């Protein structure tokens, strides 16, 4: 039987040198993908991402999603907080978990709104923040 060096075995197996040693860090996920995955996991409804750069300095993007009940809204918001923390993003604040008809999660460059459909319709955040470029110019 022929002896083969460890480096040659790794090369033959297609593994990079040092792959078997220590802990390999997973690729860094974007905040946006972590949020959208968490919302999809919890079956949030009507998820919409709004680009609010140039409209406000508080965030670059707003994510608006709906839940079917106050319990669902609370669970969706909790999952977003959990998943973002696991990915290394710390929420600046979470508001509205007591009533759970509208939960806001401030993640610095992204703000997540999870709302009951009636609350979402009443406040109309999409109409407020989703202005096309032509409407922005007309209002200026």
Question: Your description of this structure?
Answer:
The protein has 140 residues and is α+β, with helices and mostly antiparallel strands. 39% of the residues lie in helices and 20% in strands. The protein has 6 helices and 5 strands; from the N terminus they run ααββαβββααα. Strands 1-2-5-4-3 form a 5-stranded mixed beta sheet. Helix 2 runs antiparallel to helix 3. The longest helix is centred in the middle third of the chain and has 17 residues. About 11% of the residues have low confidence.
Keywords:
140 residues, alpha+beta, Beta Polymerase, domain 2, 5-stranded mixed sheet, 6 helices, 20% strand
Strand order of the largest sheet: 1-2-5-4-3
Q: Please give the CATH class.
A: Alpha Beta
Distance between the termini: 80 Å
Q: What is the tally of beta strands?
A: 5
CATH topology: Beta Polymerase, domain 2
- Give me the oligomer status: single chain
The biggest sheet, with number of strands, parallel, antiparallel or mixed sense and barrel status, is: 5 strands, mixed
Q: Tell the overall outline.
A: globular
Question: Topology, please?
Answer:
Blueprint: H1 6-13, H2 31-41, E1 45-51, E2 61-66, H3 70-86, E3 93-95, E4 102-107, E5 110-115, H4 117-123, H5 125-129, H6 133-139
Parallel strand pairs: 2-5
Antiparallel strand pairs: 1-2, 3-4, 4-5
Helix pairs in contact: 2-3
Task: Tell me briefly what this model is.
The protein has helices spanning 6-13, 31-41, 70-86, 117-123, 125-129, 133-139; strands at 45-51, 61-66, 93-95, 102-107, 110-115. It has 140 residues and is of the alpha+beta class. The model is unreliable at 6-20 (pLDDT under 50).
């Amino acid at each position: 039987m022929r002896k083969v060096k460890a480096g040659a075995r790794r090369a033959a197996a297609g593994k990079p040198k040092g792959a078997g040693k220590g802990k390999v860090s997973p690729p860094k996920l974007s905040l946006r993908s972590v949020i959208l995955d968490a919302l999809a996991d919890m079956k949030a409804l009507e998820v919409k991402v709004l680009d609010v750069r140039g409209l406000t300095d508080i965030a670059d993007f707003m994510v608006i999603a709906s839940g079917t009940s106050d319990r669902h809204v609370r669970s969706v918001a909790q999952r977003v907080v959990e998943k973002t923390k696991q990915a290394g993003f710390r929420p600046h604040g979470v508001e509205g978990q007591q009533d759970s008809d509208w939960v806001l999660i401030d993640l610095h460059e992204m703000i997540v709104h999870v709302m009951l459909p009636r609350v979402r319709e009443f406040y109309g955040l999409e109409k407020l923040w989703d202005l096309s470029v032509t409407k922005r110019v007309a209002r200026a």
